[in-house]
Design a protein that fits this description.
about 290 residues, mainly beta, eight-stranded parallel barrel, 27 strands, about 50% strand, elongated
Length: about 290
Amino acid sequence: MSTYKNQYFEGERSLFGEHDAEISGTTFGQGESPLKESRNITLQDSVFKWKYPLWYSQHVRADNTTFETMSRSGIWYTKDITVTNSSLQAPKLFRRSSQIKLDHVHFADAEETLWTCQDVRLTNVQVNGNYFGKDSQQVYLDHVDIVGNYCFDGARDVEVHNSRFISKDAFWNCENVTIYDSTIDGEYLAWNTKNLTLVNCTIESDQGLCYIDGLKMINCRLLRTDLAFEYCSQIDAEITTDIDSVKNPISGIIRAHGIGELIMDASVIDPQKTQIITETHKAKGATA
């Protein structure tokens, strides 16, 4: 086992191919790919200042470690990495990597981060940046706050708990997404998605929840949400609040406290295939 403590490295590939090493209190300054192709690395109280620090690496543990702004595109093609209690300041940080565990980390600039990754677990994570999580699979989130548009576009097999999303166009083009006890605020939620389940969620979304095949909602609140469910099929929705407006759902059942405006255009959908239930009336295939 090699040990590096309180050291400073510069230059390209300073510890290229390093394996079975403990690194603490160490700064990697200017110079690309300092730990490229590394294996079995433990990092503690260290800093990466430059590009591509952990490409093609395996079995990495990093705690209280900082990835500064210019360590962009830092962790690509890497397998089995855990990062805890760390500040991640660089964009495009994770891509085409797998077996990722992040706990108590802060993404200051998560632009185009976590793309095309597999087997990802995020707990107690704060994210700021657009296009987070694109095309990733097998993703688990608990106590994650995301501020940034277009998160998880094209993602598959996503499970979310106790999280908050301030995001326009979140969860587009996804498949098999289940969200529990969370808040989502942003326009055009989850268009073109298949198999979306929302449980105990609060949602505010202009023209949200449209073009979905297989939408299940249990004990959810829709606040200031209009033109919802357009061209959605196989709906099973239980909404505890009023919905501003519902437009042209294809099939299923919608239960709500009330609906401000119900638009069912028989020239484009069959109103008989959707059942609408509110506290004041029950109507199958209601038209306007």
